[in-house]
Each structure stands twice: as C-alpha cells, then as structure tokens.
Automatic annotation (TrEMBL), chains A, B:
<dbReference type="InterPro" id="IPR000738">
    <property type="entry name" value="WHEP-TRS_dom"/>
</dbReference>
<keyword id="KW-0547">Nucleotide-binding</keyword>
<keyword id="KW-0067">ATP-binding</keyword>
<dbReference type="Pfam" id="PF00587">
    <property type="entry name" value="tRNA-synt_2b"/>
</dbReference>
<keyword id="KW-0436">Ligase</keyword>
<dbReference type="InterPro" id="IPR004154">
    <property type="entry name" value="Anticodon-bd"/>
</dbReference>
<dbReference type="InterPro" id="IPR006195">
    <property type="entry name" value="aa-tRNA-synth_II"/>
</dbReference>
<dbReference type="InterPro" id="IPR002314">
    <property type="entry name" value="aa-tRNA-synt_IIb"/>
</dbReference>
<dbReference type="GO" id="GO:0004820">
    <property type="term" value="F:glycine-tRNA ligase activity"/>
</dbReference>
<dbReference type="GO" id="GO:0005739">
    <property type="term" value="C:mitochondrion"/>
</dbReference>
<feature type="domain" description="WHEP-TRS">
    <location>
        <begin position="48"/>
        <end position="104"/>
    </location>
</feature>
<dbReference type="InterPro" id="IPR009068">
    <property type="entry name" value="uS15_NS1_RNA-bd_sf"/>
</dbReference>
<feature type="domain" description="Aminoacyl-transfer RNA synthetases class-II family profile">
    <location>
        <begin position="239"/>
        <end position="597"/>
    </location>
</feature>
<dbReference type="GO" id="GO:0070150">
    <property type="term" value="P:mitochondrial glycyl-tRNA aminoacylation"/>
</dbReference>
<keyword id="KW-0963">Cytoplasm</keyword>
<dbReference type="GO" id="GO:0016740">
    <property type="term" value="F:transferase activity"/>
</dbReference>
<dbReference type="Pfam" id="PF00458">
    <property type="entry name" value="WHEP-TRS"/>
</dbReference>
Length: 730, 730
C-alpha cells in the first residue's frame, strides 16, 4: 500500500488491477478496526444506564399514579424516596459511563491534554516561522503551508541526512523527474481511474465534504457525547467506524441517509457520495489537447525510467533508485494542519530485486535491532505492539523477506537518528484487507503524535505490479535478465491447433476454439493428449462460446519440447520505502518540544530539543555587551564557524543573556557561545544548560565536533573548565 | 527584468504597472539589437552582386541580339567572352558574399562546429544519464527532462553550494512555498494578465507556433541562404530581427502577412498572432471555483511573506530572503533542449533595502574583482564586452548602487567556483527599452554556449514595485519603518474645504469641487492661497466637472502645519538575483566537456573536467583484479570514504583499468583509487592523468582533502611518490 496515496479504500473487488489506495493514514487505535471493541465495562454500563433510565421512568409514573389516586402520604413519600434513590443510581452510572468513554475515546481528557500540547507546539512553530499558512495576506488556502527560515533549515537537514543515509550509503541511483505528468503515465499507474475520495455536496450551497469524514464525525460524536444511545446502537456505530474504510459509495450513502447526516455548516441535505479524483489537473502545451496532472507521488518517474537505470547499473539486480520531490493532492477538505496538505515533499525509494531472491547482503547489519513492531496477528487478536528483534521477525516469516526487513531496519535508524522518540515509533504490518492483491507484505512506520498514530513511512513489497503496468501500457518491456552460466534445457508445452481442420469443423467458431485450445494449462493439455490418443476424440468446453465441442485427433497437436535456454527473463519485484517528509518533520517537532520554567519561575519557556543533526541553526553567538573588543572576537568566531560549515546566528540585541538563551532554545539551537572576553568564551548546551569555558581559538572546532557527533557533550564537559551560570540570568 | 519570465516583450505602453516580461533570453550578438548591423563589406557585396547580375543579364541579351542580327562571328565571340568574364565575376562576388554571411551568421561554419560540439556533449550526457527525456517510454513530452543519477548529483552539489555561498554566508532567510498558487497572487503580480507569448495557429490543423520564432526563422533563413535579396531587403530583415521584441501583436501579424510566412510543417496559412498565457492552470479544491496556477517563479512566495520575515528579522533592513524551488512555464513550442523547458528549478533571492541607502557593508570584499562587463553604453555604441573592475563600475555609476554591485560580484564568484569559464561569462546591462519603468538597473549574467550567449542569472534592482503591488491587492501594508533617534519636525500642507459654503454655492457639484480642491499639489495650493488672500476670489478648473468655478476665500482653508514625526514609513526596494539552475548546469556541462585521444590513438575519449565541488561522484575505487585481498582493501577504503562524506563508486567490472578510467572520466569523476595491493594504492587525477602511491590508510583522507579544496593536486603530487602509468593501459 502506497503512502499518502488516497484517502478512500475501494471495496476489494475493484482493486485487482490497481495500486491499492488507502483511507486516512491516521489511526487512533488500529485494534478498533479489527474487533468491535465494545469494552465489557462500557457495554454493561450502557446496559445498566438504560435499565436505570427505565426504572426512573417507571417509578416516576408510579409516583404520579399514587398522587393522582390520592394515596396515603407515607406511601407517596416512600415512592418518592425510591424515585430519588433510583435517580441517584442512574446519575452514578451516567458519570461512570462518561468516565469510561472519555478515558478510551479520542476527545476525552487525554485528548484535551493532547490538544493543549499541540496548541503550544503549533503556536511556537507559527510564531518562530517554522511554518506559515501560505498566501496569508490573501487569507490563505487550506492545506497549503510555507516553511519559514527555521522550518526550511530543518527540512534541508532532514533531506541531506536522508540522501546520506539512503542514497549515498546504499549507492542508490537518484533521479529527478518533473511534477507535470502526462495523463498516459497516470492512466497506466491507475491514478486517473482510482485515485479518488468519496465526496458529498451540500445540496443547496454546493460546499463539498469528504463523505467518510462526516460519517466518522457523526459516529464519534454520538459515542462520546450521547449517553442515551443503547448498547446495541453503540456497538453498531463502533462497527461502522471499524469497517467504513471498505464501504462502497452506495454503502456509505446508505449510512449517511440512515443517520440523517446533514451538511455541518448549514444543516442542508447532502448529495449521494461520488468519487472525486484527487489529482490537480492541468493541460500541457498550448493546444489544450494533452491532459496532464501534477504528480501524486514521485514513484512513477522511477518506474518509467527502469530500463535506462537497469542498463546504467550494468544490467545487474538488485539496485535501488530514489527520488526526492514535490507531490500534489487536491484534498477535498484538508484538516489536521501540517499532516494532511495539498502539496508535500516525498522521498521515495524503489529497490528492484529478483523475485526469486529477496535476500540482502547487508541484512546482518540491522538484524540485531529491537524495536516496537505490530504484526498482523497481534492486531487481529487485539494485542498491542511489542518489541521484536528484527532478525527474528524475518527468520520467523513475520516480515516477508530480508530486503523488506533491511529497509525496515534502516528506516528505524533514520527516524531515531533524527530525534523521533523510539517509544512512540512502531512498525505496523498491513492487514490482509489493507493490501493490494499483488503486494507481498507492507509495513508502515507509524509515529505517535497528538493526532494519534501517524503513518509517516510506508515500506511495501509491491511485487512486479508497477513495472508490468507500464510495460503493458507503453509496449516497452521493463524486464531484467539472468544469464545462465551454462544453457539450461527446459521442457515446454507446445499446443498447435490445426486451423484447417478446425475451420472445416467449426466454421466461424474456429477462432474461439483455437484460442481456447491454446489457453489450456499443462495438466489440461496432457489429459486431452492422453484422451485423444486413446479415444481419438474428446469433449471440450469452449468458454467463449459457452458450449462443448468435440475435438478430434487431427485438429490439434500437443507435445512437450525440450529447449535450450541461455537466460531467464523476468519482471523484477520492487520494494518501496516511501517517506512523507513533512509528516516526519511535524512529528519530530512534537517529540522534541518541551517546556521548562524560567529561572524566576514566572513563565514556561519553550525548548525544541532537536539533535544537532536537524537543528535549524547549530550555534548562536552572543557578545555579552556591545563593544568593539567583543564584536571583533565575535567576528573571528563567526568566520571560523562558517569555514567549518556550522550554521550560526549572531545575536547582538541588547537584551539579557537569559532572554537570548530563551529565544535560542525556542528555535532548538543546541549550542550558544557567549563572548565575554577576547581570549576565551562560554559554550552553553541547550538541554543541560551546562556551560564550559573554552579558548576563543578552540570555540568553533569544539562546537563543530559536538554538532557533527565526533564528540559528545559529556566529552566536552569532562575536558573543559565548567562555568558557573551566575552570569547567565536564566 | 525578471529571468525566465516570458518570451514576449510588451510594447512599452502596456507595461507601466507590470513586472516587465522578456523576450528570448538567448542572444547571439546583442549588438545586432541596437544598431542595424549591415556590415560595410556585406552591404557592398550585395550591391555589387546585384550590379553583376544586371550586367550578366544585359550582356546575355546583347549576345542574343547579336546572334539574332547574324552579326560577324568575331563580334559575337567577343561578346560571349565578355559574358563569361562577367559570369565569373558574379560568381566570385557570390562566393565572397556567402563567405561573409557564414562567418558572421549563426548557422555558418562556426555554427556547424558549435552544433557538432553540442551534439557530442548531448550524446555523452544522454548516454551517461545526466539527463533523460521525461516519460521516454511513452515517447516523451517536449520541454520536460529528468535528471538521471549523475545529473541529480551535480544538481544537488550546485544547490548545496548555492545554499552555502548565498544563504549561509549572508544569513539569508530561506522560505519554501508551494508551487500551487491561487489566482489572486498572480493577478497582483501581473502574471495572469501579462505573462504571455504571442502565438499563431495553423488554420487547418490547429498546430500552435510562437509567432516571433517563425518571423525570426524566416529572416535568418532569407539572410543566410538567399543571395539574391537586395541590400535594402537585407537591411530591412536585419532591422526586423533587431526590433521584433518590441512588436505589438498587430505589428507582428503584419510582418507575417507581408512575408507570406506559412506553417512550417504544412505550409498552411496562419492565424493572426494572439497572446497565450504561459502558466499551467489548475483548480484548487473540489468545487472547481478557486482557479490556481503552477507558479511561474518562486519570488512571489517571498513577497507575500514580507511582513512576517521583516518581523522575524527584528524589523531591521536590509535583509534578504531566498527560495529554491520548481517553477513552471507552459511553453508554446519548447526548443533548445535543456535551455528552454516547461519545468525548472529556480533559486531566487529578494534582498530588501532602504531605497535611500543602497550601500552594502561587504562591498569592499568584491570591489577588486575584474571580469567581463557589457554596460548599456558599450552595447549602444557597437563595442563589445570588456574587463572592468567592479569597484570602479560602481564608483562611476555604471552599476547603479553598491548592493546591486555586491550581488554581481557574488554571482561572478559563484559561477566561476562552479567551473564556468570566466572568459565565456559576461554581465550584460539591460538597455533602457528592456527594463520595466520602475526598475533602477538590471544586469544579466550571460554564459556563452553553443546556443550563443545564455541569460543564466538575472540581477535586478526592482525598486518597490512588487511589495506595492501586493500591498494594493491584499490591503496589507508591506512596509518598513525607520525610527528617528529624535522626532523630526515636518511641514505638511493641509487643505480643508468648507463644505457648508461650498454646498451653498455649488449644490450637487459640491463633492466634485471639494475633491478637486483636496487634490491640489503644494504649488497649486499655495498659489490659490496667495490669490485668495489678495483678491478674495479665484477661478478654479474642476476637471471632473469639465468647467471652471469661482472659489471664494471662505470656501477653503489652506495652510502649512508643522508636525512631529517619530519615524519614516516606506516601502523597501528589492534587489533580486534570480538563478536558472538548469541553464547554469547545462552551460557548465559545455564548459567542462573536452575530448582527448585514447592511448592507442584510435578513438576520442570524452572528459568532463568538473571541479570536485560539482563532480557527481568524487572518487571511483577499482580493485585491479578480482580477488579477496583486494576486495577487502576496497571495502576498507569505501567505508572510510563514506565516513568522511566523499561520494564514490566501486567498479569491479573485469575490464581493463584504462577502460575503467575512460568510463569514469566521462562522468567527470576527479579521482580514482586503484587497489593493487593490501597496503598501498594508486590515486589518479583525472585532468593530468598523474598518479601517486599512497598508503591504504591515508587514501580516503588524501582524496577528501583534495576534493574539499583543503589541498591542491600539486600538493599531493609534491608529497607522495609518483606512480608510473605503465600498469594503467590508457
């Protein structure tokens, strides 16, 4: 399954010739999509609440009846006492149910905390221009965001590291293809026909909504806020949530009608759901006759170049090609901020491999890794993700093959090196119903964020599907050869219909009969041969005619012939790790964000604890006060930092060092050099707030060594005199 | 004037509110666009040829007349002798004219050589996958190209260096905005209305052509191949070539009709020229109601973010923002290979500066540079580009200001460091008619290639135009403030119409009279004040009424008031260096390409002499023969190269070392390590073919030092024992 491809899953019957598209790649608890997770407690509480409600109602009626019948006061009082008791009981159950729901649901207290956390992160990101809603002065466009200076620097660091970690270390063949893509390419890949989401329109205003979003919102809202629904109704809604990804347009429409869901903004009725293609369409050239699209992924640019790349690689398998670039997706109604956008950067690898040999020579390098994995079986049986050793997972067949396993390991290393919290990173295997029929195995690297578990990298063994699709459409063979060291003798079935005899016998049906004969598999053919040899005649069902015909011995020749073969020609399998760079970066922001009290304790200060590798600026340089001596020293350091390639910023604002530290912490700058003499300086580390004194001359090289991982801060701390933070009024 | 913007120049009258768009950014000899360069020789030869033709014709008639009159044989023979002599003379002049034309024209012998050279470069580039026509298996799309592995590596190196040289060294604010852009933004910038080329259609087939291309081709063809045209016609065609950039659609249409130019493929008649907008259009969101375009440049993303960036920079000027990204242009009929494409990478800088102070503190760093400059005056007077000292060019006012000069210098350094031949690089100033009315000064970095002089970087002082355009359209002030250290007293004109008196006097015309009074400039107002004070009454022309009215003293109060001002608010000027990355890379390919004979002398080998900075791979590693010992050593070196960040490739093919060197030279790999022992290796430098012996342990660090410019090859040559090339069978 392809990362970021589409937001609606087609019913399985439709997907047999197509790259499979995926629904929301954000999951709260995948378990909910397997079993109908009506927690025992919740179920009995809903049951109990409904009983208590009935009792209260019945007792209320009883009280009214007693009063109407002017019953004795003690009797009435006793009945009222009972009513009050029942009401108390009902209210207690109600509270308990409320608690149960909110502790398990996505918008309960946990989620309130998550939202407050997210707001703090997002506020800091926007204020410090990590990102900016695009075209803000024109009131923006939903789903489009700019990266501001620190965001750009982070992105550029992430991409450099990606290029180093994947392309350079693995000798991949990088390509860079245009975003504008002619229709024929995306027709072959299946995007023109199938890359759609189901949409409904407000029948009066024409406003468009994603049909599954509306149904999902309705179910969640009912389940979380409406305590009066019965246990049965609750179970039904939960089932809908679990299976809605597989709904056809008709099924989705039926649910929307059943629940009387209306347009959220106007309460107007909604149209039936219909598919909306998510590609941005355009036209190439002045004639208007060549339809084109902005590519929805970068992978197709690699597939269409397979032949050249295979030759470039000396006609050897395996090899990988990679591409980093923009992809586009005209979302119906983007939400979830930076996670679902209309234009984003993808980094994709297509590793081409012999389907008969998916071993990987470097697999031992990652076999010892242990991390959270969430195999299919664990998901189906309601367990949670667990720490597995990658080598064992491959050995046991949990992960389909070594190459797939190798990439899972490399992706793990990549994400953790960036600063993703390994406790909030898991590899989730696709369930059978999530995968396309042709896929051998798929795993998503999911990162937990305030939005839930986010699919950030998809790693799929897509078999030969993509190359075959383009071979067929273009007529150019996209295949590899394996030369045999010595020719092999191969036995081949040869079926030769004798057209003249068939023509005499079947006239205009001759062609259908011929084709059916040629289409027999080996077993059928050998059986026919035997029967013809013994009986001279055989009954044969021609499916294209819908009837049986009688075949005689002289009408067909069937034999097995031995042939010398010098090579095997085959379509390579492709293993595809596909990275959503923007999603990874957003999760990184959340994982690195923290707050700590200011020294005075009067406010919370924000800190992005980025590893130096991704920090937008590696170092700030502060002259303690503005004078010529310090300015000169600052210039010397700045020049040296530039020459060792350490991005830095000089802050000469007159504010206190404490304020300047706070400002720099909020950008995630790992080191600060304070210039308070012209011979030595203070270097301060962001997370520990520790400071050491280093000579002016050494300052740049110390920072560069720690920033580039050649030294740890502990090494620095052990090697240089410590500096009391008295001067730093944090 | 903006790089790559458009291919048709609007007649000046149309461009007063618009970023000025440019015609073909490829010029053969700019001189030809100034004076009508009918070379004296060519003119007299055409004249002479026409006279000789007349003489030949006249003498031919004379001979025929003599024969008809049965004149005496000696007389006829003498006449025939003269005719033959005249024919010989005509033929000599013809040859000379042919020679003159081809030596000066673009498709003469020089150009044949250029084309052969280009073909050699392009063949190598395509064969080694520096680039690939996009979607090749589907027969491609004109104007779209992929970068293959070495092309990607070169591009990535060029962009890294750009980021280092400009963004990091100058502390620029990088942004990264989407390609998909809503219409309102490009309406404000002028692109929706004016970003067009003039197109003509084949009236029968509908095939589209660029109108100016057809006219240009016609003129060049006539001038170069038709020797019979008169000197006057030749002069006319040359004038057309010189001024056609300024033609209106009507003028262009008139020329096409006059010369009876037809569709090149079918000879069908052509439509009148009409403007075709070059932006790829699309639609944002599912409703189809928000028109959008793929951005034609990255600059607008910076302008719309000016306010946030200005605040981010602490509300201080000057500062620069930069963006690297894709831009799109739906060319009518792309030609010139990689130079005119439909999607390309731009790197743009917008340096915002106080219009009253365009000095640059780092200008002294570049003031001493000397390189080819081609100021307006030299172009107008028919001289050629000459070496100037940048500091003097700014001091003399040839370059408008220091900041513009600083960027010219930085661009020069950037291009030369990449490997552009400084002898084939010039900075050409725009002529007055090339610039927009608002631009203060513009210079293009032009690089000479087989296509002529190519505009690769545009460096323009665009004044406040862009920010003003977006302020107006968005209603958001895009301004900067200069706080005064102490308040300034400013005298301001105050005109206050007395509405009551005006109403009594002019009834319904009161409003028009009031507005006209308020619209007076200082001089008009002070004159009126003086007249009113002396006469008590004045005649006043109200243009919105189209008549004069009589204004009395009590109807308006005019005064000058002193006001305290604490700051000056102004729209910054912007100086914009804009880099066409693909064009720079293509020119780099041509400048670095050379051939040399193979050792056997039986073939020409191709070499790309890339500086290590841009070389796609820095080093190849060859085990001399395949055995375990060498393989181990190769692995050790490979691991060390990876750890010092040197991209490399291992070539274990069994072919001869000479063949492997040739293959690596053709990719422009500067160094090759041959492993022929497990203790020491050979390092070979590409251009000199010199080889040294270095210990296995040192190999990676030696290569990395030279590749990163910390050492020169001369240093290496001086420090290590030389290796005889006997083993290398080059």
């Amino acid at each position: 399954m392809r990362l970021f491809l589409s937001a609606f899953v087609f019913p399985r019957k439709q997907i047999f010739t197509l790259r499979r598209f995926q629904s929301s790649s954000i999951r709260h608890e995948p378990i909910s999509s397997i079993q109908i997770p009506m927690d025992g407690t919740e179920q009995s509480l809903r049951q109990s609440l409904s009983e208590k409600s009935s009792s209260v109602e019945a007792q209320g009626n009883a009280v009214r009846a007693l009063k109407a019948a002017r019953a004795a006061k003690p009797d009435i009082d006793a009945a009222i006492d009972l009513l009050n008791k029942l009401k108390l009981e009902k209210s207690a159950v109600e509270k308990q149910l409320q608690l149960t729901i909110s502790s398990s649901s996505s918008s309960g207290n946990g989620s309130l905390n998550r939202e407050a956390f997210r707001q703090a992160v997002v506020n800091t990101l926007e204020r410090r221009l990590f990102y900016i809603p695009s075209f803000k002065i024109y009131r923006g466009v939903a789903g489009l965001f700019d990266y501001g200076p620190p965001g750009c620097a982070v992105k550029s660091n992430v991409l450099s590291f990606w290029r180093q970690h994947f392309i350079l270390e693995e000798n991949m063949l990088e390509v860079d293809c245009p975003c504008v893509t002619p229709e024929v390419v995306l027709k072959a890949s299946g995007h023109v026909d199938k890359f759609t989401d189901l949409m409904v329109k407000d029948e009066k205003t024409g406003t468009c909504y994603r049909a599954d979003h509306l149904l999902k919102d309705y179910c969640n809202e009912k389940l979380e806020k409406d305590l009066t629904i019965s246990a049965d109704t609750a179970a039904e809604l939960k089932e809908v949530l679990a299976v809605m990804e597989d709904y056809s347009p008709e099924e989705l429409g039926a649910r929307i009608r059943k629940y009387e869901i209306t347009a959220p903004d106007t309460k107007n009725p909604l149209s039936d759901p219909y598919p909306f293609n998510l590609m941005f369409q355009t036209s190439i050239g002045p004639s208007g006759l060549i339809p084109g699209y902005m590519r929805p992924e970068t992978a197709q640019g690699i597939f269409v170049n397979f032949k050249d790349l295979y030759y470039y690689n000396g006609r050897k398998l395996p090899f990988a090609a990679a591409q980093i670039g923009q992809a586009f997706r005209n979302e119906i109604s983007p939400r979830q901020g930076l996670l679902r956008v209309r234009e984003f950067t993808l980094a994709e690898i297509e590793h081409f491999v012999d389907p008969e040999n998916k071993s990987h020579p470097k697999f031992p390098d990652v076999a010892e890794l242990e991390f959270l994995m969430f195999p299919r079986e664990e998901q189906m049986s309601g367990q949670s993700a667990k720490k597995l050793c990658l080598g064992e997972a491959v050995a046991k067949g949990t992960v389909n093959n070594e190459t797939l396993g190798y990439f899972i390991g490399r992706v793990y290393l990549f994400l953790v090196r960036l600063g993703i919290d390994k406790g909030r990173l898991r590899f989730r295997q696709h369930l059978a119903n999530e995968m396309a029929h042709y896929a051998a195995d798929c795993w998503d690297a999911e990162i937990e964020s305030s939005y839930g578990w986010i699919e950030c990298v998809g790693i799929a063994d897509r078999s030969a599907y993509d190359l075959r699709a383009h071979s067929e459409k273009s007529g150019v063979d996209l295949v590899a050869e394996e030369k045999f060291s010595e020719p092999k003798i191969v036995e081949k079935l040869v079926i030769t219909p004798v057209k003249k005899e068939l023509g005499l016998a079947f006239k205009k049906d001759q062609k259908n009969v011929s084709e059916s004969l040629e289409a027999m598999n080996e077993q059928e053919a050998m059986e026919m041969k035997a029967t013809l040899e013994s009986n001279g005649e055989v009954e044969f069902y021609v499916c294209t005619l819908g009837k049986k015909v009688s075949i005689k011995k002289n009408m067909v020749s069937i034999s097995k012939e031995k042939k010398k073969e010098h090579q095997r020609v085959f379509t390579p399998s492709v293993i595809e790790p596909s990275f959503g760079i923007g999603r990874i970066i957003y999760c990184l922001y959340e994982h690195c964000f923290s707050t700590r009290p200011s020294k005075a304790g009067d406010e919370q200060l924000n800190v992005f604890r980025f590893p130096p590798l991704v920090a937008p600026i590696k170092c700030t340089v502060f002259p303690l006060v503005q004078n010529q001596q310090f300015e000169e020293a600052t210039k010397v350091i700045s020049k040296e930092l530039t020459s060792v390639g350490i991005s830095h910023k000089i802050d000469i604002t007159g504010t206190s060092i404490g304020k300047r530290y706070a400002r720099t912490d909020e950008l995630g700058v790992p080191f600060a050099i304070t210039v308070d003499s012209d011979t030595s300086v203070t270097i301060r580390e962001r997370d520990s707030k520790d400071q050491v004194r280093v000579s002016l001359k050494e300052a740049a090289s110390v920072v560069s060594s720690v920033a580039e991982g050649k030294m740890t801060w502990q090494d620095v701390w052990a090697s240089f005199p410590h500096h009391s933070s008295a001067t730093a009024d944090e």
